[in-house]
Amino acid sequence: MTTAIIVAAGTGTRMGFDKLLASLGGSPVILHTLRAFQNCPDIDEIIVVASEERSEVVQRLADDEAFSKLKAYVPGGAERHFSVWAGLQAVSADCDLVAVHDGARPLIHGSQISRCVERARETGAAASARPVSETLKRADSAGQVCGGVDRAGLWIMETPQVFSLPVLREAYETVLREGALVTDEVSALEKVGHPVWLVDNETPNPKITWPADLALAERLLSRS
After folding, report:
1. Are 139 and 145 within 8 A, CB to CB?
2. Are strands 2-8 and 45-50 parallel, antiparallel or unpaired?
3. Using one digit for the tens of pLDDT, what is the confidence trace for 74-89?
4. Is 2-223 a CATH 3.40.50.10540 domain?
């Protein structure tokens, strides 16, 4: 069984409004995310990690669409790793794979979710990502260019990030025990030295962080 943990506990303060409930193509951002996982045949259950207030709103929205895979709404923590850990406590007993996804990445395609799940079944750990294609420069504190960065082998991390449940639990037990701060699950696995394989995502999968990201997502959605 593969469980999706949708992380939706962030405050969205950089946006100035609740980015997960913002309208995108006529539906709230979070609904686009949930639809992708609901419709993906390789996902068996969904757990949403969110604040109590947001969970109530998301649950009403989800009820209107009769999402059959939604199992639980779990209170989130102050940091991402606390939220993911909380979600791990709610997975079904027969779960063997966990796909962690940012609720603020609404344009993920079901086919990419499936590719990540398949790779994780083979290796124990896989993550959606895309190679860096832009020219990279390093600058000093004043903004003056002081050198270049070789982009060979550099990737931009995305979600979903999919793992064997025992591996992810071990990684987060280590993170919590050490009081470490990690920004994604791949970083957590690095703490225990477990290798992760990247799955190249050929379709746009931006994270909604700023108002401009929402406008970009709207344009991308209109073209799909």
Report:
1. yes
2. parallel
3. 998 888 899 999 999 9
4. no
